[in-house]
Every structure is written in C-alpha cells, then in structure tokens.
Specification:
CATH architecture: 3-Layer(aba) Sandwich
CATH topology: Rossmann fold
Number of domains: 1
Distance between the termini: 16 Å
CATH class: Alpha Beta
Number of helices: 5
Number of strands: 7
Radius of gyration: 16 Å
Strand content: 15-25%
Strand order of the largest sheet: 1-3-4-2-5-6-7
Helix content: 25-40%
CATH superfamily: P-loop containing nucleotide triphosphate hydrolases
Structural class: alpha/beta
Order of helices and strands: EEHEEHEHEHEH
Shape: globular
Length: 197
C-alpha cells in the first residue's frame, strides 16, 4: 500500500464527538510510551504528523488521521498512563472502551507491546477485555531495534505463552521499529487485507 496523503482530522473526547463518516478505521492502543505516535509517523512517512513526547500519557483524546482520503488511523489514549488524575484516567478509559466497543466502522485494533519487556499484567488484562469484543485485533511489538533480535524473540514467545487461555487462537503478530521502519509493510498489508473483507 502506498501512502499518498495523511492528514490530522480531529481530536474527540468521547464516542459522541467522533467523526460521522463511513471511513474504515484502524485503532492504535497500548501502554503509555510504547511508541504509538512514532509508529503513526513511520506508517504515514510524515515526520511530525503525530506529536512524539518523552512524557507518558500525553495522548488524552481520540485522535483521527485520514489516510489517502480512504481510511483512518485512530490514536487512542494509552492505558495505565502516568501523571493524570484518577478522575481523568477513568474518563479516558471510558471513552476508549466506548470507542472500541461501539464504533461501527472500526475494522481492526492494533495493540502495541514493548518488545523489551517480559509480559506485563496490564497488557494481558487489556487483551482479556478486548477478546470479549467483536473487532479483530493484532499485536505489534515495538522498539525491536533497542535490543538483540534474540532477546526480542524471547519476550515475544513469553508473551505468546502468557496469552494461552486468553483466547482460542493467536492474533496476528508484527515486529516493528520506528527507527528502522521494520514492520511498516506488514502493518499496511494487514490494513489493506482488512479493508477488503
């Protein structure tokens, strides 16, 4: 898939504020500081389309980007983010949950996992909740350039083991790096296939 155009469209605080359109949507979500904004910039080949921050929890709204005027990437607030009051945290999680459960044109959810870490309880808990829904999801292991390929593969295998019992079949798994661009074609291929179904 070739990216010809990529534009930020709108930020929405809740499901009712989301764009009313028929574009197929693909959501990105993960723990804070897992590299969502960097991945959006790599996928679209736009250096500053999504704002990258070193401070976790900067994404507080549902951010919509229109790609090729045909589909949308949706950057969702990270779960478990820091430096946000508990009252706000509950609101953001509710908005995200409403979007994931109630958005009719959501085609696929990409859950970003930090490849440098062993399985984290918060990721597994989120996937357990996600598996009760109707939208297919895939796992993207980020930051693969920050350790050896062998070490990254060990953590991926540990994560797959931890997922046994969470669901009957393993989701699609993609390894990625914002620095090297690896995984980009696989993610875009996954999006292209989902748009045809």
């Amino acid at each position: 898939m070739r990216i010809i155009s990529a534009e930020f469209q709108v930020s929405a605080p809740d499901l009712n504020s989301c764009p009313r359109w028929g574009l197929p949507e693909f959501a990105l979500i993960g723990r804070s500081n897992v590299g969502k904004s960097s991945l959006i910039n790599v996928l679209t080949e736009r250096r500053a389309l999504a704002m990258v921050s070193d401070a976790p929890g900067k994404t507080k709204l549902l951010n919509f980007f229109v790609i090729n005027a045909k589909w949308s990437l949706v950057d969702l607030p990270g779960y478990g983010y820091a430096n946000v009051a508990k009252s706000q945290r509950a609101d953001f999680n509710e908005a995200t949950a409403d979007f994931l459960a109630g958005r009719k044109n959501l085609r696929r959810i990409f859950v970003l996992i930090d490849s440098r870490l062993p399985p984290q309880a918060i990721d597994l808990e989120f996937l357990r909740w996600l598996d009760t829904g109707h939208v297919p999801f895939a796992l993207i292991f980020t930051k693969t350039d920050k350790q050896s390929a062998a070490k990254g593969q060990v953590n991926v295998e540990l994560f797959k083991k931890a997922m046994i019992g969470l669901r009957s079949e393993m989701p699609e798994i993609i390894l990625s790096s914002a620095r090297t661009g690896s995984g980009r074609s696989e993610i875009l291929g996954s999006i292209e296939r989902a748009m045809k179904t």
